[in-house]
Design goal:
Chain A is α/β, with parallel strands linked by helices. Chain A contains 9 helices and 13 strands. Chain A has helices at about 40-55, 95-105, 110-125, 185, 190-200, 220-225, 230-255, 270-285, 305-325; strands at about 1-10, 15-20, 25-35, 60-70, 75, 80, 90-95, 105-110, 130-135, 140-145, 150, 260, 295. The interface of A and B includes residues 150, 176, 248, 252 and 255 of A.
Chain lengths: ~325, ~325
């Protein structure tokens, strides 16, 4: 009998799921559209039908032990998704209860960055680490921070919002209603804002001038930089300055063994890691200098979010087993 | 038989110690000069003699269970004091081993801010809390951050250096060799720098103009503000702006239930707490607004550092007892 957990990654556009064993192998997977369902009940009906379909096609010797869910604004303590701006459903969704009832299995939820952090700890770049920071550089910036081997959920379950630390007083307007958040500089949308700024402020030649401003994307800027475009490289340097200082400040708070870059913008690899490392080191308090590794995600890119959600379930099942042994 | 731990607070000027029971009552105490001993052996000889003298004068029914030591640059993992700039001894001092050998008791060390945080958790303002931040506003700025009921020591034992996060790029020169650290604004010395700046930049009348610039102290500025001196109040407002933003960013990372202000400058009470609270709330990410308590230390002022060091010992003894039960 092989044991797996079901990992579910609920995103603004798509919801993907997979059955994952203890070693992080994804044995079967599937996905549905999130965006087309304004009604959570219809979404959940389609999702469970698809999951059960994929499950029935698997080897009958496979036993599902539990369900982990990664979702924007997922609250671990409450088992809910709360006021997620990028999902079609408003208010508070009791997502883990929905899964528990439909599948008769334990179900756990956390936000996508926290799920990714647990994924790195179980299957990826943070194996054996007890203190590390994972930062997701996607459409927004999220983070999962692990200290003493445990995620920092904080008092209300919303710890680890590095993307919404203010790094520039009176800086760029942020979707959260404030200004100067790290997210406005170090996300895929932030890097587009920086490129637009550089294109307007300078007369430097660049392949990016051939693109309609509204069509500019993080991917285009990354490709231009990889080909040596000087303006695109300046954009990365500027981004790295902001991110490097912010990470140096985070190190002073949690003293991690490593910082793991995750998500769309992190695919730029050394194009981002080298300058971020330079600016982080330059800003580190002396006791931390030269000690903190800056790493790329160790999860298989395609399934990273599913692996993270599945890892959450493995971790929670282990905790429950431990507590049961303690009280017996 | 009453049980106590010995709490030792090693400071740049004085070293104080006390025997403290589980409820936080200090049954006997004493202190010696730190500064006069350039040689750690002579310092330690005088300290142990004084401790044994005080111990012998106590009720014979009191049993000492262990020793907790709070010291600048105290490293919990190594049991050492490492390169403390404000202590007379250079390099790495194996302080917990010295105590263990001389007293034949378990001995533990951490930095003074971490010790204060454990003290608040056991005896003070953070009883029953599992997630909080303690910030010491003294000659420097230190912090002890508790998440999931445990201190964040981080990978190398130096976590929680909030005073050395950079809050102003190219800001004030810091003793650490960098510039713009929170410590240069929110410490007793930082507030003197702010007052000096305001006295030079404005022609506002103030009782502080009657003081020789070199004699200006945090205490004087606090007293002037308490008497309604407008310039001194401006100094507090400026300090609160810097500290409030920094605390708002810290909340986004660790999501604490409360932030506890500790140390010399914290004695200003509501003179500091009210404006810090205002600026912190203004800068908080929406999910945290109105949720985080800002508190003054709940430890008896005179013995706060001794209580913290003693609490460290109680906490470690409890951990060791728990581990012994687990493995039996």
């Amino acid at each position: 009998m092989k044991e797996v957990t079901l990992g579910v990654d609920i995103g603004g556009t798509n919801t993907a799921f997979g059955f994952v064993d203890r070693e992080g192998n994804c044995l079967a997977e599937g996905n549905i559209s999130t965006g087309k369902h304004k009604d959570i009940t219809l979404f959940f009906d389609e999702l469970t039908e698809k999951i059960k379909h994929v499950q029935h096609a698997m080897d009958k010797n496979i036993k599902v032990r539990g369900i982990g869910i990664g979702a924007p604004n997922g609250n671990y303590y409450h088992g809910t998704i709360e006021y997620a701006p990028n999902l079609p459903w408003k208010g508070v969704i009791a997502i883990s209860m929905l899964f528990k009832e439909r599948f008769d299995l334990p179900a756990y939820v956390t936000n996508d960055a926290n799920a990714a952090a647990i994924g790195e700890m179980l299957y990826g770049a943070a194996k054996q680490m007890k203190d590390f920071v994972l930062i997701t550089l996607g459409t927004g910036v999220g983070s999962g921070i692990v200290s003493n081997g445990q995620l920092i959920y904080g008092h209300d379950g919303f710890g680890g919002e590095l993307g919404h630390t203010i790094i520039e007083e009176n800086g760029r307007d942020c979707a959260c209603g404030r200004s100067g958040c790290l997210e406005t500089y170090a996300s895929a949308t932030g890097i587009v804002r920086t490129a637009t700024m550089k294109l307007e402020e300078t007369s430097q030649s660049s392949v990016l001038r051939e693109v309609e401003p509204a069509d500019l994307s993080g991917k285009m800027i990354t490709e231009a930089a990889l080909e040596g475009d000087a303006l695109a490289l300046d954009v990365f340097d500027y981004t790295a300055q902001k991110l490097g200082l912010s990470l140096a400040n985070t190190v002073a708070i949690t003293s991690p063994e490593a910082i793991i870059l995750f998500g769309g913008l992190a695919k730029a690899g050394n194009l981002l890691i080298h300058p971020v490392s330079k600016y982080m080191e330059a800003n580190l308090f002396s006791v931390f200098k030269g000690k903190v590794k800056l790493l790329s995600s160790g999860l298989q890119e395609q399934n990273a979010a599913i692996l993270g959600a599945s890892a959450l379930a493995w971790q929670e099942l282990k905790k429950e087993h431990y507590n049961a042994v303690q009280s017996s």
